[in-house]
Amino acid sequence: MDTPADRLKQARAVAGFKTATDAALRFGWNVNTYKSHENGQRNLRVDKVEQYAAAFGVPPAWLQFGGSLTGQVDGVSAVQNVPETTLEPSASSPSGGGEDGASVSCREDDVEIGDLTTDGLVGDRDFPVYGSALGGPDGEMIVSYDPIEWARRPGPLMGVRNGFGFYMIGESMSPAFEPGDMILCHPTRPPLPGQDVLVIVRAGTGEAALVKRLLRLDERGVRLRQFNPAREFEVPREDLVSVHLVVGKYSRR
């Protein structure tokens, strides 16, 4: 079974460290603590995921959730094996259309960038913005992996490779995020409980996206909170593709 501990051991070996002790001594870590993470005796907290990933030169999302270290999709760096340009959950699949198994009815609702308040877009016009369409009743969004806009790079993502934005659809996170807001995402920084996240989940034969408040992230999966209607729910690890930190938004006028 491929676990975070297995991937940590792999990353350490690929980085050129023959033993766990060698790596711990090189980076000044407590040897026993690091060994317990590598042998799976202790779970990896998000701060340790970020620390180890930086030391061994691997993406934090890969260390936490697995997947491929190659073939990354520009903009959504941890999404793998995208079958089509626009990903639509299968209505016949048990996981298609949200947690209730309801069928997904997609509607296009892209927003012109001129309708946004975008003070703070300060960099080159190299920032990809993706469109989305409403999916299931809990705010699932179907994301197109072809950018519909190239905007000036926002300040919070200056110098961040593969940073991206997308348009919020639905009211499940109102008033924090409203329909038409441009959500700004960091592709690799591990989020902490209490922060807002973009969660990419498996849905049928493709993937769907959720914007929620993170309550817990560990080997079991994630626990999330939405505001409208107020509820909490969990996504098991086997249904997770990636989790991305939301670092800001630009509100629709």
UniProtKB/TrEMBL annotation:
Domain HTH cro/C1-type as annotated: residue spans: 8-63
Keywords associated with the record: DNA-binding, Transcription, Transcription regulation
Keyword Transmembrane part of the UniProt annotation: no
Coiled-coil residue windows: none
InterPro entries xref list: Cro/C1-type_HTH, Lambda_DNA-bd_dom_sf, LexA-like, LexA/Signal_pep-like_sf, Peptidase_S24_S26A/B/C
Region feature (Disordered): 85-105
CDD domains to which the protein is assigned, alphabetical: HTH_XRE, S24_LexA-like
SMART domains (alphabetical): HTH_XRE
GO molecular function: DNA binding
The keyword Transcription regulation is annotated on this UniProt entry: yes
Domain of life: Bacteria
Protein name, per record: Helix-turn-helix domain-containing protein
